[in-house]
Design goal:
heterotrimer, A alpha+beta, B alpha+beta, C alpha+beta, B: alpha+beta, Elongation Factor Tu (Ef-tu), domain 3, 4-stranded antiparallel sheet, 6 helices, C: alpha+beta, Ribosomal Protein L14, 6 strands, Ribosomal_bL19_sf (chain A), ribosomal protein (chain A)
Chain lengths: 322, 365, 144
């Protein structure tokens, strides 16, 4: 088929179709099935479009306003810096579930997150850090309420990122879940930035109250600039059973010897799945591809590196106006 | 003759009916049992009279240069050569009380949380409106002559809207010729909206997210999540039977299938296991909280949009009378045109009650 | 991994063999739930001393599952007493505190609290409540 034979007749759309004329007649088989029908039946039954097809459409030149994705190739950031950023702000990573991912949704969500970060400072924190949160409260005196506690849990991607603070007040253990991007959160401070041996500290519910008590007038502990996040190698001694969970089955590093009879550890070993760490497909399904993670974190780096200076500028502007 | 019988016949005739005709009918999905002989559920899936997919595209063995040349040609025809069938711009109609405007085809992107200015959290569904164009407009008199047209629709004209422009080579010539009038590339998805004549819209008009305004209410129609073959408990919400206490092999079954004597036999519409989902459903009165004009994304209230991620979604002004706009403060008629805004179109538009993340934190006085 | 923290593995494993399905441990306050009385009333303290903590015998709402601020009827030391729920062990929405024990405050029929002081902090969301609750709020020393 050479390009010399292309001619336009009345309407362009018709002429394109005219290049492809069926030469072979379509004969059905013994059962009355045509090739097309068989192909259709073999195709997976799906009433949604695949991600790749949607992306192809968004960038196709036949679109009225094809999407020109802003490139992050010119953003200079080392992979170490990006890895650091990924640990510091894990909520920017997309959800690993393939079927519920969409690039534009993630992009728009991240835009909202950058906007919020320009208004208030969302500091770096890890599970085990001591934090103070000031929330707007209609019924509180001064219309504000402050809660101090140790961060025992952190989860969520995007705007639904949240963390739990635990404290013991008047001998009563209290836990509050706060959403990072909730507009009623007026101030988030990390009073003591540190990490623990585990990525969640739910076992503090079954530990003596001393491990969870944080005084409300806790003074912030400054760290030298550029220093690594200190690791607190504290090992917690739990109370006697009954517990909220079977902690012996959870490979906790931040607890002292649990002191249980041998049968507990034996049963834990029976139920353990040590092969999971070699299950590559499982890891693949539950994590984001490194290249994609890099692209996302480059965008995050580009947008967030100037936030501190931006907020300082805004503050000085406001003061000048006053 | 019942409505369903009429439509069944019309479909049988295999005439010029578009596949999604019945989707625009305002039919309530009421599941009732009956003793009549006729079917209580109308099943879709009849072949369309215009064959769409071009099966022989893989038979071409083009060199890369020829392939690139053809792509350039296709791109040029739709961007540089306007259709010779193009007319002068039509006059714009006036928005009256019972006006029905054209709708739009979107793709459901997913859920995102937002907050109101009072600090309450709301779930919003994002829907992207990708490359919509009006393909055809038929006034009420002509539309009434097409097969399957219901007398209830006599006041309405029909607007065919298409979404997702694609390479014409993957479609058949007969399908591609549908787009000649509009002068747009052939679309992946076509649907039809019933429209009052004052909202007549010219073929070839692009439709964007600006067709709607922030704070308006819309009805959203889409195919629900396909659950496949499901049992009676998940499909119809039956209670099943106890797990123990002597129950023999009947924990998730239907149980009885009816009565006896005069009521003997299984009645039509009996709830049984079967295919669940992948049905058209409408959610009415959804509020638009926010519009992003750069990506043509609507933020709709709640997780109420039917279907899974990346399903096609039909969006149109709500029919609920108490949520319709006043003629004094009406949405753009027949649609929003770029020249109306004079180039001032903010990228993000928030509802008055929605918290915009650029604002300072919510504080109570 | 994080999701497993909320599930009791043992119960799931055993009942899975018998084809039962279980929900998570929801920590809801229903009938016969044991609660902790957080005021300084003699009755509350006596119940703890005996070793028979107060139990809910009725929840005054449609669903019969107690939530923060709901009125309940307790069986305490052989008598029936009304009380209000001021703290829950149940998983809560964001910004609402979750306590390590289910706390209640005893009240009379007419709504006056039995005790004179509260020993545990009260959730701040309860400050918006009106009626009998204002009397309880006046006793509170600490809000969370």
């Amino acid at each position: 088929m050479s390009s010399d034979t292309v001619t336009f007749t009345t309407a362009p759309a018709c002429s394109i179709g005219a290049l492809y004329i069926h030469t072979k007649p379509i004969t059905p088989d013994v059962y009355g099935n045509t090739k097309a029908r068989r192909a259709r039946e073999l195709r997976p039954r799906r009433n949604y479009l695949l991600n790749e097809d949607v992306e192809k459409q968004r960038r196709s030149l036949l679109q009225r306003n094809p999407e020109v994705e802003s490139s992050v190739a010119d953003v200079e950031a080392s992979s170490d810096l990006l890895q650091n950023l990924r640990e510091k702000m894990p909520e920017f990573m997309p959800r690993p579930d393939i079927l519920s991912r969409d690039r534009i949704l993630e992009k728009l969500e991240r835009q909202d997150m950058y906007r919020r970060r320009e208004v208030i400072n969302i500091p770096e924190f890890f599970v085990g850090s001591i934090m103070a949160v000031t929330v707007a409260d209609k019924s509180a005196p001064g219309k504000q309420r402050r809660f101090v506690g140790i961060c025992i849990y952190r989860e969520g991607q995007g705007l639904s990122a949240n963390f739990i603070l635990r404290n013991v007040i008047d001998g009563q253990g209290v836990e509050i879940r706060f959403e990072l991007y909730n507009p009623t959160l007026l101030k988030i401070e990390t009073l003591k930035l540190e990490k623990r041996l585990d990525d969640q500290l739910m076992y503090l519910r079954d530990a003596p109250q001393e491990y969870s008590t944080v005084p409300f007038d806790f003074e912030p502990v400054p760290l030298p600039k550029g220093a690594a996040v200190p690791l607190n190698p504290l090992k917690v001694k739990l109370n006697r059973r009954p517990w909220h969970e079977r902690w012996e089955r959870m490979n906790l590093k931040g607890v002292e010897d649990l002191g249980l009879p041998e049968r507990f550890y034996k049963r834990a070993q029976e139920l353990a799945k040590p092969w999971e760490r070699f299950d590559l497909m499982k890891q693949y399904r539950s994590t984001i591809d490194d290249d994609e993670a890099q692209t996302v974190m480059k965008e995050v780096y580009a947008k967030t590196k100037n936030i501190q200076s931006l907020r300082r500028q805004q503050r000085t502007q406001k003061q000048k106006e006053k | 003759m019942t409505l369903r019988a009429v439509l069944f016949q019309a479909f049988n005739r295999n005439s010029g009916i578009l596949k999604h005709q019945l989707e625009s009918a305002r039919v309530l999905y009421v599941h009732q049992q009956s003793r009549s002989k006729g079917s209580t559920q109308y099943k879709f899936g009849r072949p369309w009279h215009v064959k769409k997919v071009n099966q022989s595209i893989n038979d071409e063995n083009l060199t890369t240069e020829n392939e690139e040349f053809i792509k350039e040609v296709i791109h040029e025809t739709y961007t540089q050569h306007p259709s010779p069938l193009r007319e002068e711009p039509w006059q714009r109609g006036e928005y009256l009380k019972f006006t029905r405007r054209c709708g739009v085809i979107g793709i459901k992107l997913g859920l995102v949380p937002q907050w109101t200015k009072t600090g309450e959290k709301i779930t919003t569904t994002l829907v992207q409106i990708l490359d919509n164009h009006v393909i055809r407009y038929t006034p009420p008199e002509e539309a009434a002559k097409t097969a399957g047209w219901h007398p209830l629709w006599r006041k309405f004209g029909s607007v065919v809207v298409g979404a997702l422009s694609s390479d014409p080579r993957q479609f058949k010539k007969s399908y591609n010729s549908l787009f000649a009038e509009a002068g747009v590339p052939p679309k992946q998805k076509l649907t039809r909206f019933l429209v009052t004549p004052n909202a007549a819209i010219q073929p070839g008009t692009p439709l964007t997210a600006m067709h709607f305004r922030v704070g308006d209410y819309v009805d959203v129609q889409a195919k629900t999540i396909d659950y496949g073959f499901q049992g009676v408990i998940k499909r119809w919400g039956m209670k099943g039977m106890p797990a123990s206490h002597g129950v023999t092999k009947s924990h998730r079954k239907m149980g009885s299938s009816g009565g006896g004597r005069e009521k003997a036999g299984i009645w039509k519409g009996k709830k049984m296991p079967g295919h669940m989902g992948d049905r058209n459903r409408i959610t009415k009165g959804i509020r638009i909280w926010r519009i992003n004009t750069k990506y043509n994304v609507l933020y709709l209230h709640g997780p109420s949009v039917p279907g899974s991620i990346h399903t096609y979604v039909r969006i149109y002004d709500t029919i609920l009378p108490h949520k319709r706009p006043n003629p004094d403060d009406h949405p753009p008629m027949p649609t929003w045109f770029e020249e109306d805004s004079e180039g001032q179109c903010p990228e993000e538009q928030w509802d008055e009650e929605l918290f915009a993340f650029t604002e300072p934190s919510v504080e109570y006085q | 991994m994080a999701g497993s923290v909320w599930r009791s593995w043992y119960v799931q494993k055993v009942l899975a063999r018998q084809s039962f399905s279980t929900t998570q441990c929801l920590q809801e306050l229903r009938k016969l739930a044991r609660v902790r009385v957080v005021d300084n009333s003699a009755l509350g303290r006596a119940a703890v001393a005996i070793g028979k903590p107060a139990r809910i015998i009725h929840v005054y709402n449609k669903r019969e599952v107690g939530y923060l601020g709901d009125k309940v009827l307790l069986a305490i030391k052989g008598q029936k007493k009304h009380a209000y729920i001021v703290g829950l062990k149940q998983k809560q929405k964001p910004n609402i505190p979750r306590f390590d024990s289910n706390n209640v405050v005893l009240v009379e029929e007419n709504g006056t609290p039995v005790g004179t002081r509260l020993t545990a902090p009260i959730p701040s969301v309860l400050r918006n409540k009106e009626g009998d609750f204002t009397k309880i709020l006046s006793l509170a020393t600490r809000f969370v």
